Amino acid sequence: MSAQPKPSHVPVMVDRVIALLAPALSTPGSVLVDATLGLGGHSEAFLNACPEARLIGLDRDHNALRLAGERLAPYGDRVTLVHAVYDELPRVLDDLGIDAIDGILFDLGVSSMQLDEAERGFAYAQDAPLDMRMDDTTGITAADVLNTYSPADLARILYQYGEEKFARRIVDRIVAEREKEPFTTSARLSELVRSAIPAATRRTGGHPAKRTFQALRIEVNGELEVLRRALPAAIDALALHGRIVVMSYHSLEDRITKQSLAIGTKSDVPDDLPVIPAGHEPFLKLLTRGAERPTDEELEANPRSASVRVRAAERIRTRGLVA
Question: How many CA atoms lie within 13 A of 125 on its CB side?
């Protein structure tokens, strides 16, 4: 059904991500988890840059696993690929008998492959069935959401997940139209959104349906709930001096990431305590100042990196130790 990976599938900010994670992956047998494997571009770069490390790649998309498996086949037993959502990390590590990991990468959002496969329904500029499931073998579809959710829930999703200020206007149109005929295709939804948004607003900010499609995708795949569970589990799994890198493409993802990492950079004792007892010091050190953005060179080489925000941290304490 899908083509082989194309040269245009350039992993986002790959050099910077390698620079952040590589110091933790220099010892023989060190373990890197690519929690969002996709087509394996980041993973391939890591396997080349960190020859002592082994890779565990997770993805909920069966087709992505197949294509990444073909791409990474030359690395043999250094690679283990698992069909899993990234909040299942504790189970995956337990199944593999791994107590701790040395690095983990989250490249969030929809993958290039999923955007480029018109039949998956992620792209608002192409007509396709309204699916949007990252694992297209299970769960509700975007059409299910549009045709069965209450007006209040639809408006909440568009406003919170899409940051769409015309959410109520769009939902009123959706409800009126679904009573005539259920939604099945992306083109119909895309045109409805375009017509619901004032003409003056449509002239700026990109495609008018972008925010609505983003909101539906996040709802269908439970992306924010999964991320809220996954980040603490990933941090807990880090070995001493292990590193985590998170690449976000949406302000809500970045906010969750910022908050999750910030918890580890603070002591867990009251602020007015004159001395921090041993074992209660911060257990994370931030490796980025705020969220790093792509350089002009990166943007020119890979336009899909435009919205990325990168945050990273290192584990500096475990089992009561500081190092």
Answer: 5
